[in-house]
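Field log, afternoon session.

UNIT: design team B
ACTIVITY: writing a sequence onto a fixed backbone
BACKBONE:
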């Protein structure tokens, strides 16, 4: 951290107060390099600040302080450096499922698919059959739905559990379900294979702490219930990784980061969100956690195929794609949901079918592994 002080503005208290704040975070004066110039005093804090309770804004607010620049990020457990120190680089996350463990960040691409929200048993079993035949590895379905309008379908909530448990048994699929609040998290922790934190809750820190508490396995942290963490509607990389830090610091190392697009000036008429594909390699540079991409919440069924291929090309370890046997009849997000398979009596575009998409993203994934290998050996 570099702290810049204006000598013209500073008084006797300035340095004392700054050192007091640093001392409160456990930083001693001999860990600070002081350069006294004609007009400025520069303090260079030499210790790694990750994980220290140091409030930059308190220092910035001290009379005479001109700028505070944190060179290393505040998050520690989510950083790539942490991954390098503890497991040699990027991490794998294990998802338990009735048909066995699914690994995100391992040697294969993982595709998670299913409807936006959990519907009745008949629809779910039909979708489950198609998603299975298409070659997906896990299913998604929201039991609790965070909807913009209170008049829209809010999810089956607690009533989703027997339906999802039955589909899990019949298909062998593990399920990813979103926790919209503490009550939802408590319910989902009893049966879901992975808990999703959605964009609207990405900065709900009390929920993040509660989810960490509910999912962490203190006896065997690697087998904590995994969390799929999305970023907020208008994110920064730093804020996103600090949200992940809440779960990691709460004792659960099994976090998968999920990029889902951000609200921009396009919000509304053309797109719900813009793609944010560049976040995939950026997150890989900054963090050891695996990265999933959600091509659906950009908001257009006709873009899901191209976005999925691009995301895999850019380094995604997993995709989460909304699909339904008949998206126009889906209870939520039908306009962005692709067909889980061909639909009799309808001329469905192949690019909008999950059973066409999955072999293509798999082939893309293998091509990516090949060129990564070639580049690695150059
Ligand atoms: C969802 O996955 O259906 C969902 C609500 O996602 P997001 O939080 O990205 O809007
Ligand atoms: Mn949705």
């Amino acid at each position: 951290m570099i702290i810049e002080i204006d000598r013209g503005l500073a008084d006797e208290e300035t340095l004392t107060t700054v050192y007091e704040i640093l001392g409160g975070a456990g930083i001693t004066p001999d860990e600070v390099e002081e350069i006294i110039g004609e007009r400025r005093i520069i303090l260079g804090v030499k210790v790694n600040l990750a994980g220290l309770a140091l409030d930059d804004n308190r220092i910035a607010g001290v009379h005479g302080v001109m700028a505070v620049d944190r060179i290393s990020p505040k998050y520690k457990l989510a950083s790539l450096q942490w991954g390098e120190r503890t497991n040699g680089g990027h991490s794998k996350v294990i998802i338990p499922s009735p048909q066995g463990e699914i690994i995100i960040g391992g040697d294969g691409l993982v595709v998670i698919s299913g409807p936006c929200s959990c519907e009745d048993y008949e629809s779910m079993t039909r979708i489950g059959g198609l998603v299975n035949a298409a070659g997906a590895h896990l299913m998604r379905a929201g039991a609790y739905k965070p909807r913009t309008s209170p008049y829209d379908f809010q999810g089956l909530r607690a009533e989703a559990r027997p339906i999802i448990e039955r589909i899990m048994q019949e298909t062998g699929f593990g399920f990813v379900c979103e926790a919209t609040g503490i009550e939802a998290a408590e319910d989902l922790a009893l049966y879901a294979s992975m808990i999703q934190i959605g964009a609207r809750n990405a900065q709900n820190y009390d929920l993040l702490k509660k989810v960490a508490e509910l999912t962490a396995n203190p006896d065997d942290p690697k087998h904590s219930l995994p969390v799929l963490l999305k970023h907020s509607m208008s994110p920064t990389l730093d804020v996103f990784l600090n949200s992940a830090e809440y779960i990691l610091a709460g004792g659960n190392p099994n976090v998968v980061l999920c990029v889902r697009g951000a609200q921009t000036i396009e919000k509304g008429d053309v797109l719900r969100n813009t793609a944010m594909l560049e976040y995939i390699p950026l997150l890989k540079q900054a963090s050891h956690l695996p990265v999933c991409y959600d091509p659906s919440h950009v908001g257009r069924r006709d873009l899901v195929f191209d976005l999925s291929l691009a995301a895999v090309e850019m380094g995604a370890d997993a995709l989460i794609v909304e699909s339904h046997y008949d998206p126009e009849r889906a209870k939520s997000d039908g306009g962005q949901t692709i067909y889980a398979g061909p639909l009799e009596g309808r001329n469905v575009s192949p690019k909008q079918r999950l059973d066409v998409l999955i072999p293509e993203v798999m082939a893309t994934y293998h091509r990516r592994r090949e060129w990564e290998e070639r580049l690695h050996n150059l």
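LOG NOTE: The pocket of manganese (II) ion (ligand 2) is lined by residues 116, 322, 332-333 (CB under 6 Å).
NEXT ACTIVITY: expression trials, pending approval
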